[in-house]
Amino acid sequence: MRGDYQQLVDDISAALGAPATLEDRDFVLIAFGAHGGDDDLELTMDPVRTRSILQRRSTAAVRAWFEAFGIARAQAPLRIPPDPAAGVFKGRICLPVRHRGVVHGYVWLLDDEHLAGLDLSGPPADPRLAQAMETAARIGALLAAEARAEAELGELLRELLIGRPAGRDAARAALREALGPSGDGPLALAAVTPWRAAGDAEGEEAEGGGSALAAQSGVAALCAVPDSLPDGSPALAALIRLRALTTPAPARTAADRLLRSPRAGGPPAAGVAPVSAT
């Protein structure tokens, strides 16, 4: 499915003749569509875009800066002006990626001179923009489907960890079946604290999301575990695939990536332990 996103982003880049990036709503990079021969120059001239592509995510500060323009509420494309002080040397055109009213991500286009005449004030009269928004809607449907599947896995993991004892065997069996071959292990369980659950940020629903984060971190399933800390804050539980129980490095790498998520708040901590698939 990740290849589907790359093709769709390439389609948007081709339609509008501009480099495009696709991020999920946590500002984790999913795909990057190059266009033309000036992409290296564009990267050099915009530090925020450079870091997003090279580090596969944007920082919490960058996310807050862009969200201040109302992108989480936007129903249509919007233009964001440059701000060199924020590292945004070139303006952006943001195409909100929505499905059934829920924002699942954003397509970002560099607002260079050949897009200056693109009218964003009303319904897309420009056929290029209409085509790009249709493609963004297809991306939204794919991200929503991933979110639903991951939410189901997360519910099973949560039930296994904190559900009633009588239901844990059933949750374990269902989770193992849903994971397919990876359900046979080896696996590790990581706990990340503190964790800002979905729904705490503007434009997010209570469950789902994190598709790109899970895919890039090698996470088989993840869930927020409520009331994990003395102050009632949640923690994140992540079930992570291992190559062998004797090589926990992938789990530590995944935990490190999760700690760098915008949802990891406060002084972060993570613990990793192997788990049995039986």
From TrEMBL:
Highest taxon of the lineage: Bacteria
Residue numbers spanned by region Disordered: 258-278
InterPro entries: CdaR-like_regulators
Positions with biased composition (Low complexity): 261-278
Protein name, as recorded: PucR family transcriptional regulator
